[in-house]
């Protein structure tokens, strides 16, 4: 899936063993229970009407505490006590609401140096808790039930607590993950969507194999109403069965009085009905307005990660791969699409047509199944053995040509690069008018937003870059994700990190004119910024609740995943070694599921040398959160490197003993530009020393920033590098200059480098004209400017504005307002002019206003260069008169990418009434599509005033927001990230009040940390800013 970060114009415990014995099935996992409060939905302590009391839970809870993922140093008795208290509270509230799939144990906040009184209170508290626990443990479980004690079950004294099904029967499964005793082999799906009534009926036949003898079949289903179910064992007769449902975990089950024996085959057939989903997942309805102004409805699917179960009952975990045969009925005026080519169409007696698709030729995970009922038209071409088609609504078919061309090139590239041909006969790419993510890699039927697939003939290369990147990402998934799939969502990075890495790598080969290098570099900087926070997580991490599954779709899985693959690839001379390794991995696991260890083991076999053990090195990057800060000390020809965790905490109390296996690269003053200059030293210990062959004046570490770490050169080291750049900008590559700028700002944030040193480095920057260093400096300075604005330090803010304008005035003045061919120059120009206009530079505002007027007068015939559109529309959004005009154009515009830039322009207004108008339109989905709300909110939050309205709106409409966007999803993460303009007290108060409606999201912790860190940085550096600006 591509997340399409709408805001940026820059753009573990191991999973349980798959083959578990039946004893293990009976035994809820200890750690899972402690971490996942949904594992306690039937905690019976206080309500005697519920199922039998099971005291073992208390013991599990206490044991689970020792295994939470706190850092050792921060785990003191106070936080433990708090945690313990919280766990009890969570548990009972989960019990009371009885429908809280979204509760999760709060991550502990560290509390340094507890007072002696606190310690005494803690100890007392723990003693009391321990005593109560012991009492509960030794009491018979049935003491508090009305029914009293049942006959003791002597054969199985550890029977888990089963929840209650919707019909009042005991539901035979008590875990989030499904049992492993039954394996689905194939699905026959028949779907009958009714686009007038917005409902559908379905029939699902699941052929299964029994791996371990069992009395139950447990699978998934959500919001579907099963009307009939039959079961057939082996060659026996089919008979009616009752399907039980446990809603909080979206699970269905069938109980059997007689054991199903291992080695047998069976068939479960279910008929059901459901409504189309109103959100953007499951089988959902969508619509668009055609050229004649008529509303056209359609239905499409989005199943990743957890929504296949909303369209048909299934074993909805990535490891349950099976084949699919799909039939869909439609009106004659519609067409249907699914993963496979259409096999036949049959006229039905009710006047409808039923399309049947070929059975999938390979096993695939449920989240990759897809189908669409619409009236789209294709643009088709044959590439090798594959028929490639790009579909859109009929009137936008002219915008599909570029996608078709670049897809063809990329498909040939990947077929060759992976040495495995794309395995299906057809590949459809479909632009869907209502679509939340950027795109979704469904096998053979990739779905996109219109913005990420359609470009007009006149579009600039920068607009094509967006489309090409998303297509490259989704195509890479056809191998990484579809052919070889992560076993469980904890290793999502195996899908997303790889697809993100391949997206940049493939385009550098296939379409170098798109210059994706700058984009990838800035993506790595942002990944570092996020991973520096204490709230970050390891690349491969525990995932025990549905909310945690959603949260895995974040920058750690995508961008950090891609960054560490780049680092690994860059550790070898040439590209071929790494390529050989991943071909080996793909061939070894083709059609199967893997975890992170499988990847490293596979690469280790091919790539390890006596210098480097791939598995050892890479595990240090995937199993620990964060990344290292490498400090370098140069004395003559002797170099000392030291590593520590680069950890931003707002209270400076948390330290970790994490160590990484770092392939440190470096260049020096006598050879610093060519790849041959680069040397490598692997730093495995806390500190290490090595000798250079001769004395050097300076070293630049992390050549071209291909490593995922930050470097501190020490006071003298920074001064020497600064001097070298002042004398000659070209002494380092532009990536290295950008890396120095990024790193020094990060070090200032960490409190390691005084801000004067930062300003010192920026002395050279007026002479820099390359995109990546200039845009990085602009972004960092803008960040400080916005913080000053927020603190209402208007005098300092205006001095900062002058500082920025002085640094970049010449470069800004050199920009033209005509079409520009070169992507890198477009990126530079759009960053500079957006900044100039946002700082109210007169010349910029005047040029933008005049261009907008010409655009209005031309009635749409004049095209504003793609990279300037955002600047022009944002300026237009500032005055009441042009805002109305822009809104009018927006309402009638059809081209999605341009439309989104207009929307950002509209949302940047400071007029309260208009702000409210936009937010409400977005919520109702009337003039502004609801899928654009995250974009609207994050744009508003670029300014202090706008953000106040957005914040009120978020609070008032939280429940409606999470109806549309799942808790933890990327859309919600984007919305929460926006609120860092608020006070931490307000943010904390609001989110902690949400309880299971989102209080435990990692992004809330991130937002809170960021607010506090910004505040701390300002408190520390205001005097310096006052003195030096
Ligand atoms: Zn993806």
TrEMBL record:
<dbReference type="GO" id="GO:0042277">
    <property type="term" value="F:peptide binding"/>
</dbReference>
<keyword id="KW-0472">Membrane</keyword>
<dbReference type="Pfam" id="PF17900">
    <property type="entry name" value="Peptidase_M1_N"/>
</dbReference>
<dbReference type="InterPro" id="IPR027268">
    <property type="entry name" value="Peptidase_M4/M1_CTD_sf"/>
</dbReference>
<feature type="active site" description="Proton acceptor">
    <location>
        <position position="474"/>
    </location>
</feature>
<feature type="domain" description="Peptidase M1 membrane alanine aminopeptidase">
    <location>
        <begin position="402"/>
        <end position="621"/>
    </location>
</feature>
<keyword id="KW-0645">Protease</keyword>
<dbReference type="GO" id="GO:0008217">
    <property type="term" value="P:regulation of blood pressure"/>
</dbReference>
<keyword id="KW-0479">Metal-binding</keyword>
<feature type="binding site">
    <location>
        <position position="477"/>
    </location>
    <ligand>
        <name>Zn(2+)</name>
    </ligand>
</feature>
<feature type="compositionally biased region" description="Polar residues">
    <location>
        <begin position="92"/>
        <end position="103"/>
    </location>
</feature>
<feature type="transmembrane region" description="Helical">
    <location>
        <begin position="119"/>
        <end position="139"/>
    </location>
</feature>
<dbReference type="GO" id="GO:0005615">
    <property type="term" value="C:extracellular space"/>
</dbReference>
<dbReference type="Pfam" id="PF11838">
    <property type="entry name" value="ERAP1_C"/>
</dbReference>
<dbReference type="GO" id="GO:0006508">
    <property type="term" value="P:proteolysis"/>
</dbReference>
<dbReference type="Pfam" id="PF01433">
    <property type="entry name" value="Peptidase_M1"/>
</dbReference>
<dbReference type="GO" id="GO:0070006">
    <property type="term" value="F:metalloaminopeptidase activity"/>
</dbReference>
<dbReference type="InterPro" id="IPR045357">
    <property type="entry name" value="Aminopeptidase_N-like_N"/>
</dbReference>
<dbReference type="InterPro" id="IPR014782">
    <property type="entry name" value="Peptidase_M1_dom"/>
</dbReference>
<feature type="compositionally biased region" description="Polar residues">
    <location>
        <begin position="1"/>
        <end position="11"/>
    </location>
</feature>
<dbReference type="GO" id="GO:0005737">
    <property type="term" value="C:cytoplasm"/>
</dbReference>
<dbReference type="InterPro" id="IPR024571">
    <property type="entry name" value="ERAP1-like_C_dom"/>
</dbReference>
<feature type="region of interest" description="Disordered">
    <location>
        <begin position="92"/>
        <end position="114"/>
    </location>
</feature>
<dbReference type="InterPro" id="IPR042097">
    <property type="entry name" value="Aminopeptidase_N-like_N_sf"/>
</dbReference>
<feature type="site" description="Transition state stabilizer">
    <location>
        <position position="558"/>
    </location>
</feature>
<dbReference type="GO" id="GO:0043171">
    <property type="term" value="P:peptide catabolic process"/>
</dbReference>
<keyword id="KW-0031">Aminopeptidase</keyword>
<keyword id="KW-0812">Transmembrane</keyword>
<dbReference type="GO" id="GO:0012505">
    <property type="term" value="C:endomembrane system"/>
</dbReference>
<protein>
    <submittedName>
        <fullName>Leucyl/cystinyl aminopeptidase</fullName>
    </submittedName>
</protein>
<feature type="domain" description="ERAP1-like C-terminal">
    <location>
        <begin position="698"/>
        <end position="1012"/>
    </location>
</feature>
<feature type="region of interest" description="Disordered">
    <location>
        <begin position="1"/>
        <end position="21"/>
    </location>
</feature>
<keyword id="KW-0325">Glycoprotein</keyword>
<keyword id="KW-0862">Zinc</keyword>
<dbReference type="GO" id="GO:0005886">
    <property type="term" value="C:plasma membrane"/>
</dbReference>
<comment type="similarity">
    <text>Belongs to the peptidase M1 family.</text>
</comment>
<keyword id="KW-1133">Transmembrane helix</keyword>
<keyword id="KW-0378">Hydrolase</keyword>
<keyword id="KW-0735">Signal-anchor</keyword>
<feature type="binding site">
    <location>
        <position position="496"/>
    </location>
    <ligand>
        <name>Zn(2+)</name>
    </ligand>
</feature>
<dbReference type="InterPro" id="IPR034016">
    <property type="entry name" value="M1_APN-typ"/>
</dbReference>
<dbReference type="InterPro" id="IPR050344">
    <property type="entry name" value="Peptidase_M1_aminopeptidases"/>
</dbReference>
